[in-house]
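User: Teach me something about this protein's shape.
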Amino acid sequence: MSAAIESYGLIGDCQTAALVGRDGSIDWLCWPRFDSDACFAALVGRPSNGRWLITPSDDAIEVSRRYRRETLVLETTFRTGTGKVTVIDFMQPRGRSSDLIRLVRGDEGEVPMCMELVLRFGYGATMPWVSRLDDGARLAERQHAASERGSPSPGFTPSNWAAAAWAGGARPWLPGAGPRSDP
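Assistant: First, the predicted structure itself:
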């Protein structure tokens, strides 16, 4: 079940927007435009309808959020028993495609992290085809495509991933979306 709507943060690029939960999950995103079908629709269904979760593997003792001054750059900070980590979410101003960027920054100690990427086009109804790229994955269906870049390890799969964030370290994920175009 999704969280109360008032607990979500908003990030966007003036042509679309995403809702980010305090748990580190993007539960709503119509991509690549506001009038597109949602590819993350857990807000109105279940996680299997699409979401992108990046969160500590261990329970958070404290969660805080803030926007960087005069921006839509959202920072969600998790404190656990082993350290502190910040997930930084934003969308760049629109270029050729829409880009959703998520950074994980280790602030203190070492924090085991997990990621779950469930991309479903058509408001959660359509499971995409997945193709492995040298530096990530490409997810596509009849009309839409998305890519995930910056996968953190050779064993990466686009649905589940686990690693650790450490003080002074950062890992980016750089997905982009747009109309399908075969390479």
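Now, about its shape. The chain is about 0% helix and 55% strand. The chain has one domain: 5-179. If you'd like, I can walk through any region in more detail.
User: That's plenty for now, thanks!
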